[in-house]
Write a structure and sequence with these properties.
By secondary structure, the protein is of the alpha/beta class. It contains 13 helices and 21 strands. It has a domain of 239 residues: 3-Layer(bba) Sandwich (FAD/NAD(P)-binding domain). Helix 1 packs parallel to helix 6, helix 1 packs parallel to helix 9 and helix 9 runs antiparallel to helix 11. The radius of gyration is 21 Å and the shape is globular. The structure holds adenosine-5-diphosphoribose (APR) and P-hydroxybenzoic acid.
Length: 395
Protein backbone atom coordinates (compact mmCIF):
# COMPACT_ATOMS: atom_id res chain seq x y z
CA UNK A 1 0.00 0.00 0.00
CA UNK A 2 1.30 3.43 -0.94
CA UNK A 3 1.20 6.27 1.52
CA UNK A 4 -0.92 9.14 0.11
CA UNK A 5 0.37 12.69 0.47
CA UNK A 6 -0.84 16.05 -0.78
CA UNK A 7 0.89 19.32 -1.63
CA UNK A 8 0.37 22.28 -3.95
CA UNK A 9 3.60 22.01 -5.98
CA UNK A 10 5.63 18.80 -6.33
CA UNK A 11 9.19 19.76 -7.20
CA UNK A 12 11.37 17.03 -8.71
CA UNK A 13 15.06 17.73 -8.16
CA UNK A 14 16.97 19.37 -5.37
CA UNK A 15 19.54 21.27 -7.45
CA UNK A 16 19.60 25.07 -7.43
CA UNK A 17 16.45 25.28 -9.61
CA UNK A 18 14.24 23.07 -7.42
CA UNK A 19 15.55 24.39 -4.13
CA UNK A 20 15.23 28.06 -5.04
CA UNK A 21 11.73 27.52 -6.42
CA UNK A 22 10.71 25.79 -3.20
CA UNK A 23 11.94 28.72 -1.11
CA UNK A 24 10.39 31.43 -3.29
CA UNK A 25 7.06 29.59 -3.03
CA UNK A 26 7.39 29.04 0.72
CA UNK A 27 7.93 32.78 1.24
CA UNK A 28 4.64 33.34 -0.55
CA UNK A 29 2.82 30.78 1.59
CA UNK A 30 2.63 28.08 -1.10
CA UNK A 31 3.27 24.48 -0.06
CA UNK A 32 5.78 22.43 -1.98
CA UNK A 33 7.65 19.14 -1.66
CA UNK A 34 11.16 18.72 -3.02
CA UNK A 35 12.08 15.18 -4.09
CA UNK A 36 15.55 14.10 -5.23
CA UNK A 37 16.93 10.71 -6.13
CA UNK A 38 20.35 11.50 -4.65
CA UNK A 39 21.45 11.75 -1.03
CA UNK A 40 22.10 15.11 0.61
CA UNK A 41 25.81 14.23 0.90
CA UNK A 42 26.02 13.50 -2.82
CA UNK A 43 24.21 16.70 -3.79
CA UNK A 44 26.38 18.86 -1.54
CA UNK A 45 29.61 17.37 -2.88
CA UNK A 46 29.01 18.22 -6.55
CA UNK A 47 31.50 20.81 -7.80
CA UNK A 48 29.88 23.21 -10.23
CA UNK A 49 30.47 26.71 -11.63
CA UNK A 50 30.60 29.89 -9.62
CA UNK A 51 29.60 33.18 -11.29
CA UNK A 52 26.23 34.72 -10.34
CA UNK A 53 24.48 37.38 -12.38
CA UNK A 54 23.12 40.28 -10.33
CA UNK A 55 19.54 39.16 -10.96
CA UNK A 56 20.52 35.79 -9.46
CA UNK A 57 22.04 37.52 -6.44
CA UNK A 58 18.82 39.47 -5.91
CA UNK A 59 16.64 36.38 -6.27
CA UNK A 60 18.71 34.58 -3.63
CA UNK A 61 18.38 37.51 -1.26
CA UNK A 62 14.63 37.58 -1.92
CA UNK A 63 14.46 33.90 -1.01
CA UNK A 64 16.22 34.77 2.26
CA UNK A 65 19.28 32.72 1.38
CA UNK A 66 21.80 35.46 0.58
CA UNK A 67 23.52 36.02 3.93
CA UNK A 68 26.56 33.77 3.48
CA UNK A 69 26.84 34.69 -0.20
CA UNK A 70 26.96 38.38 0.77
CA UNK A 71 29.61 37.65 3.42
CA UNK A 72 31.83 35.25 1.51
CA UNK A 73 31.13 35.92 -2.17
CA UNK A 74 33.42 38.16 -4.20
CA UNK A 75 31.93 41.00 -6.23
CA UNK A 76 33.71 41.35 -9.58
CA UNK A 77 33.40 44.42 -11.76
CA UNK A 78 35.13 42.92 -14.79
CA UNK A 79 36.87 39.90 -16.33
CA UNK A 80 39.60 39.35 -18.85
CA UNK A 81 39.77 37.74 -22.23
CA UNK A 82 43.14 36.69 -23.60
CA UNK A 83 43.90 35.79 -27.21
CA UNK A 84 47.32 34.45 -28.20
CA UNK A 85 48.79 36.05 -25.07
CA UNK A 86 47.11 39.48 -25.49
CA UNK A 87 44.86 40.35 -22.56
CA UNK A 88 41.80 42.54 -22.83
CA UNK A 89 39.60 43.50 -19.90
CA UNK A 90 35.82 43.62 -20.16
CA UNK A 91 34.92 46.36 -17.72
CA UNK A 92 31.43 45.25 -16.68
CA UNK A 93 30.85 48.12 -14.27
CA UNK A 94 32.12 50.76 -16.71
CA UNK A 95 30.30 49.36 -19.74
CA UNK A 96 26.92 48.40 -18.32
CA UNK A 97 27.05 49.63 -14.72
CA UNK A 98 26.56 46.14 -13.32
CA UNK A 99 28.71 43.55 -11.55
CA UNK A 100 28.70 39.80 -10.93
CA UNK A 101 29.19 37.76 -7.75
CA UNK A 102 31.72 34.94 -7.62
CA UNK A 103 30.25 32.35 -5.23
CA UNK A 104 30.38 28.59 -5.78
CA UNK A 105 27.20 26.81 -6.79
CA UNK A 106 28.17 24.07 -4.34
CA UNK A 107 28.03 26.55 -1.45
CA UNK A 108 24.79 28.00 -2.73
CA UNK A 109 23.22 24.54 -2.84
CA UNK A 110 24.33 23.89 0.76
CA UNK A 111 22.80 27.22 1.87
CA UNK A 112 19.49 26.41 0.17
CA UNK A 113 19.32 22.89 1.63
CA UNK A 114 20.18 24.18 5.13
CA UNK A 115 17.43 26.79 4.94
CA UNK A 116 14.90 24.27 3.67
CA UNK A 117 15.70 21.84 6.49
CA UNK A 118 15.67 24.62 9.10
CA UNK A 119 12.22 25.70 7.98
CA UNK A 120 10.91 22.17 8.46
CA UNK A 121 9.42 22.21 4.96
CA UNK A 122 9.37 18.82 3.17
CA UNK A 123 12.45 17.67 1.28
CA UNK A 124 13.00 14.04 0.37
CA UNK A 125 16.47 12.71 -0.48
CA UNK A 126 17.41 9.30 -1.89
CA UNK A 127 14.02 8.75 -3.52
CA UNK A 128 13.91 6.00 -6.13
CA UNK A 129 11.57 5.24 -9.04
CA UNK A 130 10.30 8.80 -9.22
CA UNK A 131 7.41 8.90 -11.70
CA UNK A 132 5.09 11.66 -12.81
CA UNK A 133 1.47 10.81 -13.69
CA UNK A 134 -1.64 12.55 -15.01
CA UNK A 135 -0.10 15.93 -15.82
CA UNK A 136 -2.70 16.58 -18.47
CA UNK A 137 -5.53 15.93 -15.99
CA UNK A 138 -6.72 18.00 -13.03
CA UNK A 139 -5.15 15.48 -10.63
CA UNK A 140 -1.42 15.23 -11.32
CA UNK A 141 0.70 13.15 -8.96
CA UNK A 142 4.22 12.04 -8.32
CA UNK A 143 5.04 8.52 -7.20
CA UNK A 144 8.31 7.57 -5.53
CA UNK A 145 9.85 5.07 -3.18
CA UNK A 146 12.00 5.76 -0.21
CA UNK A 147 13.58 3.22 2.13
CA UNK A 148 11.47 0.49 0.53
CA UNK A 149 8.16 2.35 1.01
CA UNK A 150 5.97 3.60 -1.84
CA UNK A 151 4.49 7.11 -1.72
CA UNK A 152 1.99 8.98 -3.87
CA UNK A 153 2.14 12.75 -3.76
CA UNK A 154 -0.94 14.46 -5.16
CA UNK A 155 -0.48 18.04 -6.29
CA UNK A 156 -1.76 20.93 -8.42
CA UNK A 157 1.48 21.41 -10.35
CA UNK A 158 4.70 19.51 -10.99
CA UNK A 159 7.99 21.39 -11.38
CA UNK A 160 10.51 19.32 -13.35
CA UNK A 161 13.80 20.63 -11.92
CA UNK A 162 15.56 17.30 -12.24
CA UNK A 163 18.44 18.20 -14.53
CA UNK A 164 19.42 16.93 -17.95
CA UNK A 165 19.08 13.22 -17.06
CA UNK A 166 15.84 13.53 -15.11
CA UNK A 167 12.40 12.00 -15.68
CA UNK A 168 10.33 15.15 -16.16
CA UNK A 169 11.32 15.92 -19.75
CA UNK A 170 10.90 12.25 -20.66
CA UNK A 171 7.29 12.44 -19.49
CA UNK A 172 6.47 14.73 -22.44
CA UNK A 173 5.29 12.69 -25.45
CA UNK A 174 7.72 12.56 -28.37
CA UNK A 175 5.23 14.19 -30.75
CA UNK A 176 4.98 17.21 -28.44
CA UNK A 177 8.62 17.62 -27.46
CA UNK A 178 11.13 19.18 -29.85
CA UNK A 179 14.81 19.26 -28.96
CA UNK A 180 17.75 21.18 -30.39
CA UNK A 181 21.32 20.17 -29.69
CA UNK A 182 24.93 20.90 -30.43
CA UNK A 183 27.73 18.80 -28.96
CA UNK A 184 31.17 20.41 -28.99
CA UNK A 185 34.25 18.41 -30.03
CA UNK A 186 36.11 18.90 -26.72
CA UNK A 187 35.63 18.88 -22.96
CA UNK A 188 36.78 20.90 -19.96
CA UNK A 189 39.24 19.46 -17.50
CA UNK A 190 38.70 21.25 -14.18
CA UNK A 191 40.98 21.41 -11.16
CA UNK A 192 40.29 22.91 -7.73
CA UNK A 193 43.29 23.93 -5.59
CA UNK A 194 43.76 25.60 -2.24
CA UNK A 195 46.02 28.32 -3.56
CA UNK A 196 45.28 32.03 -4.18
CA UNK A 197 43.99 32.78 -7.70
CA UNK A 198 46.47 33.81 -10.39
CA UNK A 199 44.69 37.15 -10.86
CA UNK A 200 42.03 39.23 -9.15
CA UNK A 201 39.49 38.63 -11.92
CA UNK A 202 38.59 35.68 -14.15
CA UNK A 203 40.69 35.12 -17.27
CA UNK A 204 39.26 33.33 -20.34
CA UNK A 205 42.18 32.50 -22.65
CA UNK A 206 42.37 31.15 -26.19
CA UNK A 207 45.68 30.25 -27.81
CA UNK A 208 47.18 27.72 -30.21
CA UNK A 209 47.24 25.06 -27.46
CA UNK A 210 43.55 25.54 -26.65
CA UNK A 211 41.28 27.25 -24.15
CA UNK A 212 42.07 27.88 -20.49
CA UNK A 213 40.01 29.53 -17.75
CA UNK A 214 41.28 30.90 -14.45
CA UNK A 215 38.50 31.22 -11.92
CA UNK A 216 38.26 31.14 -8.15
CA UNK A 217 36.13 30.25 -5.16
CA UNK A 218 37.76 32.53 -2.56
CA UNK A 219 40.95 34.52 -1.95
CA UNK A 220 42.69 31.23 -1.17
CA UNK A 221 40.95 28.72 -3.48
CA UNK A 222 41.30 28.65 -7.27
CA UNK A 223 39.39 26.86 -9.99
CA UNK A 224 41.17 26.28 -13.31
CA UNK A 225 40.01 24.67 -16.53
CA UNK A 226 41.71 23.43 -19.69
CA UNK A 227 40.09 22.46 -22.97
CA UNK A 228 40.82 18.75 -23.46
CA UNK A 229 39.93 15.97 -25.88
CA UNK A 230 36.54 14.26 -25.57
CA UNK A 231 38.22 10.90 -24.99
CA UNK A 232 40.73 12.28 -22.48
CA UNK A 233 40.87 10.88 -18.96
CA UNK A 234 41.82 12.48 -15.62
CA UNK A 235 44.34 9.67 -15.09
CA UNK A 236 46.35 11.24 -17.95
CA UNK A 237 46.56 14.51 -16.05
CA UNK A 238 48.86 14.65 -13.05
CA UNK A 239 48.75 17.99 -11.23
CA UNK A 240 52.18 18.80 -12.67
CA UNK A 241 51.06 18.14 -16.22
CA UNK A 242 47.95 20.23 -15.66
CA UNK A 243 49.88 23.25 -14.36
CA UNK A 244 52.60 22.91 -17.02
CA UNK A 245 49.92 23.07 -19.68
CA UNK A 246 48.03 25.90 -17.97
CA UNK A 247 51.24 27.97 -17.83
CA UNK A 248 51.81 27.47 -21.53
CA UNK A 249 48.26 28.44 -22.41
CA UNK A 250 48.34 31.56 -20.25
CA UNK A 251 51.72 32.81 -21.49
CA UNK A 252 54.72 33.66 -19.35
CA UNK A 253 53.55 37.07 -18.17
CA UNK A 254 50.34 35.80 -16.58
CA UNK A 255 51.85 32.46 -15.57
CA UNK A 256 54.48 34.07 -13.38
CA UNK A 257 51.78 34.69 -10.76
CA UNK A 258 50.37 31.16 -10.95
CA UNK A 259 50.59 29.25 -7.67
CA UNK A 260 50.59 25.50 -8.14
CA UNK A 261 49.02 23.19 -5.61
CA UNK A 262 47.69 19.67 -5.10
CA UNK A 263 44.28 19.32 -6.66
CA UNK A 264 41.39 18.73 -4.26
CA UNK A 265 39.07 17.93 -7.17
CA UNK A 266 39.71 17.03 -10.79
CA UNK A 267 37.07 16.18 -13.38
CA UNK A 268 36.26 16.30 -17.09
CA UNK A 269 32.94 17.60 -18.40
CA UNK A 270 31.69 17.59 -22.00
CA UNK A 271 30.30 20.78 -23.56
CA UNK A 272 26.81 20.85 -24.95
CA UNK A 273 24.13 23.28 -26.09
CA UNK A 274 20.60 21.87 -25.73
CA UNK A 275 17.07 23.24 -25.65
CA UNK A 276 13.77 21.39 -25.19
CA UNK A 277 10.54 22.99 -26.32
CA UNK A 278 7.97 23.54 -24.90
CA UNK A 279 8.94 24.01 -21.25
CA UNK A 280 5.40 23.28 -20.12
CA UNK A 281 3.26 20.21 -20.63
CA UNK A 282 -0.15 20.30 -18.94
CA UNK A 283 0.43 20.94 -15.24
CA UNK A 284 4.17 20.19 -15.49
CA UNK A 285 6.77 22.93 -15.88
CA UNK A 286 10.41 22.27 -16.75
CA UNK A 287 13.08 24.54 -15.27
CA UNK A 288 16.89 24.62 -15.37
CA UNK A 289 19.00 21.83 -16.85
CA UNK A 290 15.87 19.69 -17.34
CA UNK A 291 14.95 22.07 -20.18
CA UNK A 292 18.25 23.39 -21.43
CA UNK A 293 22.02 23.05 -21.25
CA UNK A 294 24.63 25.64 -22.16
CA UNK A 295 28.37 25.17 -22.53
CA UNK A 296 30.01 26.70 -19.42
CA UNK A 297 32.00 29.33 -21.33
CA UNK A 298 29.64 32.19 -20.42
CA UNK A 299 28.91 30.95 -16.86
CA UNK A 300 25.20 30.79 -17.65
CA UNK A 301 23.95 27.32 -16.55
CA UNK A 302 23.03 28.19 -12.99
CA UNK A 303 21.86 31.69 -13.89
CA UNK A 304 19.52 30.37 -16.54
CA UNK A 305 18.05 27.89 -14.06
CA UNK A 306 17.49 30.74 -11.59
CA UNK A 307 15.83 32.91 -14.26
CA UNK A 308 13.38 30.08 -15.06
CA UNK A 309 12.34 29.59 -11.46
CA UNK A 310 11.95 33.32 -10.89
CA UNK A 311 9.42 33.40 -13.73
CA UNK A 312 7.80 30.17 -12.54
CA UNK A 313 7.52 31.29 -8.91
CA UNK A 314 5.93 34.60 -9.94
CA UNK A 315 3.50 32.83 -12.27
CA UNK A 316 2.47 30.28 -9.63
CA UNK A 317 2.08 32.99 -6.98
CA UNK A 318 -0.16 34.94 -9.35
CA UNK A 319 -2.20 31.84 -9.99
CA UNK A 320 -2.67 30.99 -6.28
CA UNK A 321 -3.07 34.51 -4.94
CA UNK A 322 -5.14 36.12 -7.69
CA UNK A 323 -6.62 33.12 -9.45
CA UNK A 324 -4.97 34.42 -12.62
CA UNK A 325 -3.27 31.70 -14.67
CA UNK A 326 -2.43 33.88 -17.71
CA UNK A 327 1.24 34.26 -16.72
CA UNK A 328 1.56 30.55 -15.97
CA UNK A 329 0.13 29.72 -19.36
CA UNK A 330 2.80 31.87 -20.99
CA UNK A 331 5.63 30.38 -18.89
CA UNK A 332 7.25 28.40 -21.69
CA UNK A 333 7.03 31.23 -24.21
CA UNK A 334 8.45 33.81 -21.75
CA UNK A 335 11.36 31.58 -20.67
CA UNK A 336 12.29 30.33 -24.14
CA UNK A 337 12.62 33.82 -25.57
CA UNK A 338 15.38 34.53 -23.07
CA UNK A 339 16.77 30.98 -23.06
CA UNK A 340 17.60 31.22 -26.77
CA UNK A 341 19.45 34.50 -26.27
CA UNK A 342 21.50 33.00 -23.47
CA UNK A 343 22.15 29.92 -25.64
CA UNK A 344 23.38 32.27 -28.35
CA UNK A 345 25.78 34.04 -25.98
CA UNK A 346 27.16 30.78 -24.53
CA UNK A 347 27.63 29.41 -28.06
CA UNK A 348 29.32 32.65 -29.18
CA UNK A 349 31.75 32.64 -26.25
CA UNK A 350 32.51 28.95 -26.84
CA UNK A 351 33.04 29.57 -30.54
CA UNK A 352 35.38 32.48 -29.86
CA UNK A 353 37.45 30.95 -27.10
CA UNK A 354 38.21 27.34 -28.10
CA UNK A 355 40.46 25.65 -30.62
CA UNK A 356 38.15 23.57 -32.79
CA UNK A 357 39.95 20.45 -34.05
CA UNK A 358 38.32 20.75 -37.48
CA UNK A 359 38.72 24.54 -37.82
CA UNK A 360 39.95 25.75 -41.19
CA UNK A 361 42.62 28.49 -41.40
CA UNK A 362 39.78 30.83 -42.43
CA UNK A 363 37.83 30.08 -39.24
CA UNK A 364 40.91 30.65 -37.14
CA UNK A 365 41.35 34.05 -38.83
CA UNK A 366 37.72 34.84 -38.02
CA UNK A 367 38.39 34.20 -34.33
CA UNK A 368 41.45 36.44 -34.43
CA UNK A 369 39.52 39.19 -36.22
CA UNK A 370 36.67 38.94 -33.72
CA UNK A 371 39.09 39.32 -30.83
CA UNK A 372 40.91 42.20 -32.52
CA UNK A 373 37.55 43.90 -33.06
CA UNK A 374 36.70 43.46 -29.37
CA UNK A 375 39.92 45.12 -28.28
CA UNK A 376 39.04 48.17 -30.39
CA UNK A 377 35.28 48.46 -30.20
CA UNK A 378 33.57 49.57 -27.02
CA UNK A 379 30.22 48.62 -28.56
CA UNK A 380 31.37 45.04 -29.09
CA UNK A 381 32.62 44.86 -25.50
CA UNK A 382 29.38 46.35 -24.21
CA UNK A 383 27.43 43.60 -25.94
CA UNK A 384 29.55 40.96 -24.20
CA UNK A 385 29.22 42.79 -20.88
CA UNK A 386 25.43 43.12 -21.21
CA UNK A 387 25.10 39.38 -21.71
CA UNK A 388 27.67 38.40 -19.09
CA UNK A 389 25.99 40.35 -16.26
CA UNK A 390 22.65 38.87 -17.34
CA UNK A 391 19.90 39.98 -19.70
CA UNK A 392 16.69 41.34 -18.14
CA UNK A 393 14.25 38.62 -17.09
CA UNK A 394 11.72 39.37 -19.79
CA UNK A 395 13.85 39.75 -22.89
N1 LIG B 1 14.17 11.91 -9.71
C1 LIG B 1 14.46 12.83 -8.75
N2 LIG B 1 15.49 13.67 -8.81
C2 LIG B 1 16.27 13.59 -9.89
C3 LIG B 1 16.03 12.70 -10.94
C4 LIG B 1 14.93 11.81 -10.82
N3 LIG B 1 14.65 10.93 -11.76
N4 LIG B 1 16.97 12.87 -11.89
C5 LIG B 1 17.77 13.84 -11.45
N5 LIG B 1 17.37 14.29 -10.24
C6 LIG B 1 17.98 15.33 -9.41
C7 LIG B 1 19.50 15.29 -9.39
O1 LIG B 1 19.97 14.36 -8.43
C8 LIG B 1 19.85 16.72 -9.05
O2 LIG B 1 20.02 16.90 -7.65
O3 LIG B 1 17.67 16.59 -9.94
C9 LIG B 1 18.67 17.54 -9.52
C10 LIG B 1 18.99 18.43 -10.69
O4 LIG B 1 19.90 19.41 -10.27
P1 LIG B 1 20.97 20.09 -11.26
O5 LIG B 1 21.55 19.09 -12.17
O6 LIG B 1 21.89 20.89 -10.40
O7 LIG B 1 20.07 21.06 -12.18
P2 LIG B 1 19.43 22.49 -11.93
O8 LIG B 1 18.85 22.58 -10.55
O9 LIG B 1 18.59 22.73 -13.12
O10 LIG B 1 20.66 23.48 -11.92
C11 LIG B 1 21.26 23.97 -13.04
O11 LIG B 1 23.31 23.14 -12.23
O12 LIG B 1 24.01 21.33 -13.50
C12 LIG B 1 24.26 22.63 -13.20
O13 LIG B 1 25.19 23.53 -15.16
C13 LIG B 1 24.07 23.42 -14.39
O14 LIG B 1 24.74 25.24 -13.27
C14 LIG B 1 23.60 24.66 -13.80
C15 LIG B 1 22.68 24.27 -12.71
C1 LIG C 1 33.89 28.42 -12.43
O1 LIG C 1 34.36 29.17 -11.56
O2 LIG C 1 33.75 27.21 -12.22
C2 LIG C 1 33.49 29.00 -13.74
C3 LIG C 1 33.59 30.36 -13.94
C4 LIG C 1 33.23 30.89 -15.16
C5 LIG C 1 32.80 30.08 -16.17
C6 LIG C 1 32.68 28.70 -15.97
C7 LIG C 1 33.03 28.16 -14.75
O3 LIG C 1 32.49 30.62 -17.37
Amino acid sequence: MSQKLRTQVAIIGSGPAGLLLSELLRKAGIDAWVIDRQSRVHIEARIRAGVLEWGTVEALREAGVGARMDREGMVHSGFEMCFDGHRHRIDLAGLVDKKVMVYGQTELTKDLIAQRLDSGAPIVFSASNVQIDNVTSSAPRVRYEQAGKAHVLECDYVAGCDGFHGVARQTIPADVLKTYERVYPFGWLGVLVDRPPVAEELIYANGARGFALCSMRSATRSRYYLQCGLDDNIENWSDDRFFDELEKRLGSETAQNLQRGSSIEKSIAPLRSFVAEPMRYGAMFLAGDAAHIVPPTGAKGLNLAVADVRVLARAMIQSYQQGNTAYLERYSEICLKRVWKVERFSWYMSQLLHQFPEATPFERKMQAAEFDYLTQSESACRSIAENYVGLPLQM
